[in-house]
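Task 17 of the worksheet. Students: predict the tertiary structure of the chain below and write it out as structure tokens. Keep your answer in the requested format; marks are given for formatting as well as content.
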Amino acid sequence: MARCEARDPQALATLGRYLGSAAPGSLHATLISLVWECPEPRTPLQFLDWLAALPPGRFAEALLDQSGLGADWPGLLAATLAGGPEAPRTRARLLDRYGADVRPTVAAALDDVDSTRAALVDALRVWYEAVFAAEQARVAPLVKREGEAMRARRAELPPETFIAEAMRGVQWQQPADLRRIVFAPSYFCRPAVFYHFWDGTLTFCAPLEYSRPAIAVPPADPRAPDEEMLKFFLALGDPTRLRILGLLSEREMYLTELAEQLKLTKATIKYHMVHLRDAGLVTLYDRERLTYYALRPDLARQAAHLLQRYLGRALIP
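Model answer:
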């Protein structure tokens, strides 16, 4: 962020305004649903050039998509951008679908989609040049290797089994118009996952899992716990996470409910839920753009299995 700020102080503000920050009015949008549409080879700079030439309506629909807008909101957006006598009325109806805090941001984007896109693309170019360009040679091969490993795993499993495995504890309700699922591995997002359903496609972005970077390690220690065990018990080694699991043992709960019960912010609860889900302790369910969490039913058996496996191995002379 410091490198980006040094190159262009306005770039971070623009990225935060549209793609998410703690500042009031941040839209928390995502463009990941557009990536698969970009022609091969989908390099960062090629994607930005393609994004800059995308039809304005297509760009606006991807940028302004939010949960809870209603099935008719794409029509309202198209009518607003088309202009004409009804445009002021459809614009007012469209803005009413958004929260009061983000309406000024949405209104400014609707007033000048081309300028909004140009500012966002310019900010992304600054981020690329200041930050990602130096990392690309190291990261791109890892992501490519992950994609190859995922394809190999996909060939070994039935589609339903592969999807359940690749979605890392996320149970997502498939709408009737689902046409494809695109898995887009990321080096940077661990342990979080990001996904967005738009225009018949679910784009699911998860951290590298099937193929890990090769790192130098000391000679194998037969008593060293494996990563699965460490992740599982480290997730349990926090009082807030244990309290969350205690609440979920009673019933499934939404993020807001957990925050209210524990008198913590939703951001704090979400942080802990990411680690609990990554460790396989909870499942995230997405139903009609509402998410709730449930305790994994075999949690106690899993803990016993991991301990027995470790202790049995460690006791071997």
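Marker's comment: Strands lie at 170-172, 180-183, 194-198, 201-205, 253-254, 282-287, 290-295. Residues 249 and 295 are 6 Å apart (CA to CA).
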